[in-house]
Amino acid sequence: MMLTYGMAAAMGALLFAALLVAVLLLVAGLKARREAAAAWLDNVRLQAMLRVSPTTVMLIGADGRVEMPRRMADWFGLAQPAMTLAELAEGGGLSEAEAAGLDADVQAAQRAGRGFQRAIRPRGSQRVITMRGDRAPAELGATGGVIVWAFDATESLSEIDRLGAEAARLGAAYEALTGLIEASPLPMWYRDGELRLTMVNSAYVEAVEGRDAADVVTRQLELIEDMGSGGPIAGAKAARASGRPSEQVVPATIAGDRRTLRVFDVPLPTGGVAGFAVDIEELEQARSGAKRFAEAQRGMLDRLSAAVAQFGPDHSLVFCNQPFRRMFAMRAEWLADRPEFDRVLERMRDVGRLPEVRDFPGWKAERREWFMLTDEAVEEHWHLRGGTHLRVVGQPLPDGGLLLIFEDRTEQVQLASSRDTLLRVRTATFDNLSEALGVFAADGRLQLWNNRFRALWGVEEEFLSSHPRVDAFAERIAPRLKAPERAMVIPDLVRSATNERQQRGGSIVLADGRHFEFAGVPLPDGNALFTMLDITDSRRAEQALRERADALEAAHRVKTQFVANMSYELKTPLTSISGFAEMLHGGYAGKLPRQADDYLEAILDSVERLTVLVDDVLDLTLGDEGAEIEKGDVDLAEVARAAAEALRPAIRRHRIDLAVEVARSVGRVQGDAQRLREVIEHLLRHALGALPDGGRILLHADGNAGRARIVVSDNGPGLEPENVERAFDRFAEPHLQPGGERALGLGLPLAKQFVEAHGGTIALVSEPGEGTLVTVELPRR
After folding, report:
1. Is 416 helix (H, G, I), strand (E, B) or coil?
2. Where is the signal peptide (predicted)?
3. Is the pLDDT of residue 93 over 80?
4. Rounded distance between C-alpha atoms, residue 447 and residue 428, angstroms
5. Longest dimension (CA), the chain
6. Do 203 and 94 share a structural domain?
7. Is there a contact between 778 and 708 (Cβ–Cβ < 8 Å)?
């Protein structure tokens, strides 16, 4: 059979098509094989994942049949997987209530397609299984069925319970912290990541005078004023940049008052910054006051006489005053290094201002223990070389430091020693005095007495040792007095001395006839000293002297009367002699020769001198008797001129140059004109008696508002110093006048007597060869 070309072509096409189909089938088979292998691998992988997964699944069909894996049966504690939900309860896996609840959830999911979730705890197990169910997808081929996933939530629920408790605790803590922040008196705030205020407490609201927290946050009211340097958020920026809390002290105005705040900004992990402010205005004021007090205290310590040194907690010297530096010879540059306590002690030892001790390191260690004392001060006394005595007080300070005070008690110790010696001397003196002494306290009790006091009153030592009151003492001694009622004078004296602080005294006579003077003397300590002195002998001597004085007075009166009578008797012949001599000198008996005239002048001079002498003796006698001075208004110028004129005849006979200078200022005085005239005459006669013929006398009188002055001077030979000293002594030895004549010299004593009777003064100045000057000063009144 012959194949045609067309048939061959058709057969070739058919073979190609068959070959192509075979190839396609081979490719499809290979692909299916690969897909089956991949599916098997996926299935194996899913099975492995289900085995290790905390989740397992069961399928519940519309007819209530259950497809449950073995793993889920183990979770429920079943020996075999359950075929129905009822078998879960019958097999003991679930309680009837839980099984009924699960069945109700499954039926609801079948009917309404609503998913459910339920936690189930199998019987006798601590496991908690979460059942989550939903309608089964159609791909599972279980129309109307429900797929239920089971999760082992044991660990999850425990963690959830723990986290819940922790959340509750943290919530409570948050609530407490929020309440604490809100109730805090410190302004507190929180800034977000952009450093804007997002939360503030009530204290902050009150400080910025806002309505509430929302108003403050809305208006962004800042507590700190914008003082430059970054403004009020500078601290927050610094805290966030450094990652550490920032602190700054800034001023602020709160409720109209300028306050100082210490502001703290704390960066938080959230990116925000929390802050709070502490009002330290009182603290700053207290710190400033403490600083001023410390400066004032140190200034005061520098002015103390005691040496003071303060050591810090590290035992270094932090302060010492000027007396400390002087006492221990401390240089300022050495002290500037703040030496330690041990070095200071060593320095004090080097300058010899520590007591001599054998074990200096041990002694130093004991003093170092003063830093460890609580609040009790320690005191000791250092005896140094040279007799120096230091009182040392160590006072521990609250900060762990030590304050040392060194007081130089050398003088006090010496004074105390001297005082003890004086007390012993006083006691010995007190007991051995001849006076009877007793000291009564302010309450009237007898405190001290000497032996003479006890012996005088004859009382027992036991009675005095009981310190009786002054009234009881007076009653006890009354029988020993001549007049017992006089004993009550003693209490009066003691009360006067203690209460009124007045000294009173008197005399008393004992029953045995002895006389005593007593006195109550107030003492500086408020007590009274009662003293008694035996004056029996002096009374007897006084009586004898009084009798002798009476006898002398009687003899003096007789003598005075005799002198007065003799003076008057002598004046009568002197007057006759003077009269007849003047008549002869005047030529009544005829002219006499020259020599006779000289004799008559000598007679007249002698008569005049004798008359003056008699008058002076009479004046002295009357002055001793206390002759009175008549007081009146006296023109002193007229008295001076009258006295000069009275002596003119004698002055002319001796050819003496008398100059009289009476100033208008001499004025008038109150006194006796006759006695004042006699004073001037006595002064002129004294000058006249000392001058040779041709000498000069000056009588000068002047005065001022308070006093009048009379001066008489001459150019005579003057007086020796010993004669100047006794010029006004009426009992002085007579001296020789020029020409060898002796004068009694009663003029100057009489002049002094009359001047002093007028309340004035008289003075004499004289030197040999320089003449004599006598000055009298009289008061106006």
Report:
1. helix
2. none
3. no
4. 17
5. 259
6. no
7. yes
